[in-house]
């Protein structure tokens, strides 16, 4: 027994001991963080469909480090840094998640699948009923997306990195993934992880922001509708989606996969293809979201995340979401004055495009202060507009930033 090398036999322990105190501490921290995410997902504090697979992936990847045949530290999950074709093809036959990562994640396909599923959840009729208010609030709620970029640049990030982390303010995970893959591929893992960690907190954090900035007498406003809202049939919604998709793809071809995926989901919803709708809104959306969380967790290898910019990204992510929430509420107040008091400012928070979380947050807050006040329709209109404006800003950033 004395001849057995336990460090070699149990390589997870051996690599922990051999990797130095700093890297070992980082691995232990990420394991503990992964366990915390699993717990918070199980309790429902964070989104379980993303956080439980992400947390378990973080635990497994940081415990399952081993010594590779060439003497380097590695794992049998995936290697996101591979670029050589021969090495990639060889690794795809060994690392079990490498094919999933290479063929769905690194090319943005999984983000498009999620966006397609989100499209099936969007009833553009809410946007068509009050287009001005919805679009105006959505633009106001992009405050974090616009202001975080110069703040990030002032902290030493490049313009491409700044634009990528600023997209966290759009509160749309697939959009952050798509932008960072296009502009800052070396940082897309931490940026996307930060985005999904913080987006999980919007349901718990934004109500406090609203209560801080919107007094009770404003939160309790019951909006009076002078005439019944117009109901748009499926034909109008489908035509609107097709035309808007064509226009946006024409203007921003670099983001056309996102526009196409979103409006394809809307088209499936409005066309009456029940079986396809059930598939896209169910297995495709939930399966893609689950795999997205799993891959993000597995990508949280301590070797990949030991970047001095991580702390800046953590701070900037919070700043972006905070500014976007404030911008949406400011937009709500402006609409209140435009409508001469017949508008609830809380609706502004719904313009932050975390579908449909922020719309539910708005209605929940309003209902507590006035059970007779129903703002969900207006909130969903702002919410849907927020998704579209975030996609447009993604297209603008990816198109313009490389030339600056």
Automatic annotation (TrEMBL):
Gene Ontology, cellular component aspect: plasma membrane
Membrane-spanning segments: 20-42, 49-68, 108-128, 135-157, 187-209, 238-264, 284-306, 313-338, 380-403
A GO BP entry: sodium ion transport
Subcellular localization(s) per the UniProt record: Cell membrane
Keyword Chaperone: no
Pfam families found in the cross-reference section: OAD_beta
This protein's UniProt keywords: Cell membrane, Ion transport, Membrane, Sodium, Sodium transport, Translocase, Transmembrane, Transmembrane helix, Transport
Signal sequence extent: none
Topological category with respect to the lipid bilayer: Multi-pass membrane protein
Entry's Gene Ontology molecular function annotations: lyase activity
Superkingdom per UniProt: Bacteria
Primary subcellular site in the record, as a coarse category: membrane
PANTHER family to which the protein is assigned, alphabetical: OXALOACETATE DECARBOXYLASE BETA CHAIN 2
Family matches, as NCBIfam families: Na_pump_decarbB (TIGR01109)
Name of the protein in question: Sodium ion-translocating decarboxylase subunit beta
Taxonomic placement: Bacteria, Pseudomonadati, Bacteroidota, Bacteroidia, Bacteroidales
